[in-house]
C-alpha cells in the first residue's frame, strides 16, 4: 500500500477506504500544527485518541480528548480540531455513513429512530481499542474481522453512549430562508452570488440571512460553501477526477486553492486522497501541491514503529 510520507513537524496521515467495508472511510494520523477548519460531515465521526490531546470547538463549547478517549460527533455538527498540546495528537478515526449506523442500530435491537450520541468525548479505553482494531483488521486485509469488529464497535458505542437524535423543529421564516439559500449555493457552487444578491433571492436582508444561516448550520454561508465544495470535490476525486479538473468544477480558483482548503478539512491533500481510492501507492506526485500531512498505513503509528504493526494479531472483542 505504499510508503508513509511525512509532512512538516513529523505529521503523517492516511485517509482511505477498505472495499470490504462499504459506507465507511478511515483516517489515521498524527498532527502537530495541522488545524481542521470549521466543517461538518454527512455521516458520523468516531475517533480513538492514542497520544497527545485533541482540542475541538463545537456548538456546546471546547472539548479536549486524550489517550483512552472516544470522540463521537453526530452528522452535520460543525466543528474545528487542533492540537491541545505542543506535541500534537495521534488518533484513528472511523467515518461511518448514517445508513450504516442506522442499519447496525436496527440489527442490534436499538429503539426505532435516527441513532446518535449525546456526548462528544468520553473516557472509554475499550471502545478506543475496538476502533483501532477495525483499522488493524482492515489494513491486514482481514475482511471477516474488520466487518465483525466494525459492527461490535458501533453497537457497543450506541449501547453505552448513544440515544436518538432529536426530531427537527418546524422551520420559522429565518430557517426557511437559510434552507433556500443553502440550496441556491449548492446549485450554483461554481459561480455563487454575493451575500446581498443571495439575500434578495430568498427574500430577506443580508444581516438577517447571516444570522439565520449561522443558527441553522452553525457557520456563515461562505464557510458552509467551502465545506460543501470540499465534499463535492471528494466525490469527484473518488470518481477518478483529477485535482486540477475538480478544483474548477467545484468553484475553487485553481488547484492550489483546492489543495489548501481540502487539506484543512479532510486532513490529506487531494492527490493523496484520490490515489488511495484508486488503489495506487501514495508516492509523491506533482498534483499534491505543497507538502503536507499525508498517507501512512499503521494503526497507531508510522511504519516500523512499535505501535504500528499491521499483522492480523489479536483483535479486541466485546
Describe this structure in words.
It is a single chain. This protein has 2 domains: 8-164, Jelly Rolls; 174-288, Homeodomain-like (Arc Repressor Mutant, subunit A), CATH 1.10.10.60. The chain has 10 helices and 12 strands. The protein has helices spanning 98-107, 125-139, 143-161, 173-187, 195-202, 206-217, 221-238, 243-250, 255-266, 270-278, and strands at 12-16, 24-31, 36-39, 45-52, 54-58, 61-65, 69-73, 79-83, 89-96, 115-117, 121-123, 162-164. A 6-stranded antiparallel sheet has the order 1-2-9-4-7-11. Strands 3-8-5-6 form a 4-stranded antiparallel sheet. A hairpin with a 7-residue loop joins strand 1 and strand 2. It is globular and about 55 Å long. The two termini are 29 Å apart. Residues 1-5, 280-299 and 303-318 have low confidence and may be disordered. Keywords: DNA-binding, Transcription, Transcription regulation.
How far is the N terminus from the C terminus?
29 Å
Query: CATH first level of the largest domain: which class?
Result: Mainly Beta
Strand content: 15-25%
Look at the structure and name the CATH superfamily of the largest domain. Answer: Jelly Rolls
**What is the total number of structural domains?**
2
Low-confidence stretches: 1-5, 280-299, 303-318
What is the annotated CATH architecture of the largest domain?
Answer: Sandwich
> N-to-C SSE series?
EEEEEEEEEHEEHHEHHHHHHH
Q: What Rg do the Cα atoms give?
A: 20 Å
Structural class of the helix and strand makeup? Answer: alpha+beta
- The gross shape turns out to be globular
Main sheet specs: 6 strands, antiparallel
Q: Let me know the number of strands.
A: 12
Q: How is the CATH topology of the largest domain named?
A: Jelly Rolls
Helical segment count: 10
Helical amount among residues, as a percent range?
25-40%
InterPro entries: AraC-bd, AraC_XylS_family_regulators, Homeodomain-like_sf, HTH-like, HTH_AraC
Protein name: AraC family transcriptional regulator
Region (Disordered): 268-318
Keywords: DNA-binding, Transcription, Transcription regulation
Amino acid at each position: 500500500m505504499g510508503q508513509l510520507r511525512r509532512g512538516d513537524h513529523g505529521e503523517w496521515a492516511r485517509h482511505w477506504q477498505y472495499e470490504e467495508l462499504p459506507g465507511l472511510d478511515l483516517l489515521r494520523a498524527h498532527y502537530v500544527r495541522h488545524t481542521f477548519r470549521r466543517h461538518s460531515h454527512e455521516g458520523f465521526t468516531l475517533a480513538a485518541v492514542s497520544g497527545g490531546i485533541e482540542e475541538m470547538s463545537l456548538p456546546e463549547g471546547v472539548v479536549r480528548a486524550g489517550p483512552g478517549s472516544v470522540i463521537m460527533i453526530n452528522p452535520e455538527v460543525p466543528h474545528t480540531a487542533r492540537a491541545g498540546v505542543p506535541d500534537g495528537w495521534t488518533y484513528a478515526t472511523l467515518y461511518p455513513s448514517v445508513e450504516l449506523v442506522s442499519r447496525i442500530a436496527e440489527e442490534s435491537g436499538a429503539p426505532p429512530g435516527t441513532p446518535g450520541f449525546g456526548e462528544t468525548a468520553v473516557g472509554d479505553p475499550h471502545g478506543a481499542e475496538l476502533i483501532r482494531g477495525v483499522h488493524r483488521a482492515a489494513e491486514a486485509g482481514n475482511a471477516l474481522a474488520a466487518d465483525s469488529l466494525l459492527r461490535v464497535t458501533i453497537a457497543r458505542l450506541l449501547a453505552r453512549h448513544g440515544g436518538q437524535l432529536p426530531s427537527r423543529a418546524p422551520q420559522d421564516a429565518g430557517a426557511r430562508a437559510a434552507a433556500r439559500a443553502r440550496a441556491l449555493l449548492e446549485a450554483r457552487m461554481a459561480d455563487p452570488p454575493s451575500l446581498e444578491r443571495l439575500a434578495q433571492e430568498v427574500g430577506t436582508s443580508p444581516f438577517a440571512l447571516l444570522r439565520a444561516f449561522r443558527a441553522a448550520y452553525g457557520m456563515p454561508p461562505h464557510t458552509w460553501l467551502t465545506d460543501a465544495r470540499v465534499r463535492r470535490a471528494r466525490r469527484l476525486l473518488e470518481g477518478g477526477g483529477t485535482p486540477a479538473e475538480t478544483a474548477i468544477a467545484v468553484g475553487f480558483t485553481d488547484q492550489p486553492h483546492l489543495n489548501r482548503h481540502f487539506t484543512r478539512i479532510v486532513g490529506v491533500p487531494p492527490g493523496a486522497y484520490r490515489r488511495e481510492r484508486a488503489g495506487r501507492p501514495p508516492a509523491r506526485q506533482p498534483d499534491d501541491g505543497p507538502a503536507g500531512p499525508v498517507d501512512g498505513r499503521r494503526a497507531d503509528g508510522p511504519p516500523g514503529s512499535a505501535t504500528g504493526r499491521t499483522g492480523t494479531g489479536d483483535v479486541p472483542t466485546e
